């Protein structure tokens, strides 16, 4: 057991405070990285936003690079599509992403970071490659086309997220969950499971 874990086991209240401090630091870091970009964001500014001493940020995350990695880490918790009927793949995927976006927090903040600086964009690319691409490989009829199909799906879900949760276009925010699913699911379904278009 690590020293930190031992302290937490011995002092549950202290562990809860530690968790709350970490959450506050990460929330402040996401906002600051999104607003200022990686290069301009500073540990001091993030600590001020989180209302703690900069030494606490360093204690938990070591340096700005470590903090950025933690703040932009996102597990999409993708469903097991081997258990999803082929004709329901689009609907299930749209519903899953709506759950993630409407939960707020990490994924929305990561999108903001991704459109403002290269390091954030690269982190988004990693998530795409490691978590969405395997879904396309699993369900599409031509696995060699999986990267293209996954990229088209990403364009749809990221476009929705950008207009609904970041830029907050009124027509986009006005859509109900069912309306979004009705519009988006058939497109995602086609991207993932339809036969490759013939070139004229």
What does this structure look like?
The protein is mostly helical. The protein folds into 2 domains: 3-71, Homeodomain-like (Arc Repressor Mutant, subunit A), CATH 1.10.10; 81-193, no CATH class. The protein is built from 11 helices and no strands. The longest helix has 29 residues, at 12-40. It is elongated and about 60 Å long. The mean pLDDT is 88.
Give the gist of this structure.
This protein is an all-alpha fold.
Strand percentage lies at: under 5%
Question: What spatial form do the alpha-carbon principal axes imply?
Answer: elongated
The helix fraction, in percent, is over 70%
The major pleated sheet works out as:
none
Tell me the Rg in angstroms: 20 Å
Distance between the termini: 64 Å
Number of domains: 2
Mean pLDDT across the residues is: 88
Number of helices: 11
Low-confidence runs (pLDDT<50, min 5 residues)?
A: none
